[in-house]
Amino acid sequence: MTKSAQTSAMRRINELLDDNSFVEVGAYMTARSTDFNMQAQETPADGVVTGYGTVEGALVYVYSQDAAVMGGSVGEMHAKKIENLYGMAMKMGAPVVGLIDCAGLRLQEGLDALNGFGRLYGCQTLASGVIPQIQAVFGNCGGGMAVASAMADFTFMEDKAKLFVNAPNAIAENDTDTSSAKFQSEEAGNVCMTGTEEDILAQIHTLISVLPANNEDDMSYDECADDLNRMCEGLENCVGDTALALAMISDDSFYMELKKEYAPSMVTAFIRLNGTTVGCVANRTESYEEGEKTAEYETGLTARGCEKAADFVNFCDAFNIPVLTMVNVNGYNSCKCTEKKIAKAAARLAHAFANADVPKVTVIAGQAFGTAGLVMNSKSIGSDIVYAWKNASIGMMEAVPAVKIMYAEEISGSDNAAALISEKAAQYSELQASAMAAARRGYVDDIIDAADTRKRVIAAMEMLFTKREDRPAKKHGTV
């Protein structure tokens, strides 16, 4: 039984974990500083409830900050409790979930509090890639705590919460609430999902249930009641909205998209195939809801999309989660804003895919043109299996612009330029820009019916289950 009062901090823990599973650790720890009359200040549990429990029977370590105690500010003992929790989680190989409601650094404890933040960052760094780290922001997440949230693998945010390093009113000539959930999810890309408190806790519960407990012991498998050979009729109609395609091929249509509001032309999501969690990266050119088109997006890669996908692939690789890529891209987005960062961002994405040694399957659903098609987990950079739908187009560039460049003189001197372009474009498509042309060269392993995608991808993942791959000895890459 917890020794802390039933505050919002404790309530959130109880709503997240299985009933009566929470065991509190460090309940009697309080601030020991006496500076600035701190001895007269009550700090029960020093403003953070720490302990462990279960989610669907799986062990999880949780800390939940209590804004009723000095605004949930981080002091020396507050940080020490979280540090101790990380130590336990690392020994046991279980996820850490932080429920954040924090005013930032506790000024009365100055240097000790600052050191506490540093030690917290150190714990997060050691845990990165070893155990999943999840944070959810309720209320405030200011200053140094915002850095801690960015170091987590997944960050969720309540609709009315605030996340900031610098408060919006401290930023010169700022007319935007840069601390809002809307800004942090749509513009900054720091938040995976927003919603009500109940929504966020439910999503964390679901996420924990599909993630491995750590980088060695995979507890994310589930029994599959769905037909492994189920045909997905009409899947070819989802070439624009690949999110719908991924949901259709997933076991019982399970689909969990992350950072949906940020760079929406790039999909990053988890699905289930034969009971196994699979990380998915896909290009999206349009969105549909209840059969109605709700948005259209860039047909080329964006810098934001590449960065978002690279981070996701790196996480999947660290935790041995297979990666499925669905490709429909015709190049790079052409604008000044993208041009500032696209080269480095695309390089990071190519490096993430090429560096990952987990099972990797690629399905070319629409277009895969130029080096943008290459960085989307092509055979050239290490995809284990590449499938293409029958009408897919694969090549250097689209046929018509290619022909206009190659036959510029003939076209300019022709009396019937349109017919000449059409003729040459058909030839170019057949020889250099079709799925068949790529398959003949070994860049595509098979050309499949869209309806067969689920069973073919599952079969490929089953074949790749025992994959082993030797890599050059090195400390780490530098891209």
From TrEMBL:
Domain of life: Bacteria
One Gene Ontology term of the molecular function aspect: transferase activity
Keywords: Transferase
Gene3D superfamilies tied to this protein: 2-enoyl-CoA Hydratase, Chain A, domain 1
Domain CoA carboxyltransferase N-terminal: 1-168
Segments forming domain CoA carboxyltransferase C-terminal: 227-463
Keyword Lipoprotein belongs to the record: no
PANTHER family registered for this protein in UniProt: PROPIONYL-COA CARBOXYLASE BETA CHAIN, PROPIONYL-COA CARBOXYLASE BETA CHAIN, MITOCHONDRIAL
Name this polypeptide is given: Carboxyl transferase
Lineage: Bacteria, Bacillati, Bacillota, Clostridia, Lachnospirales
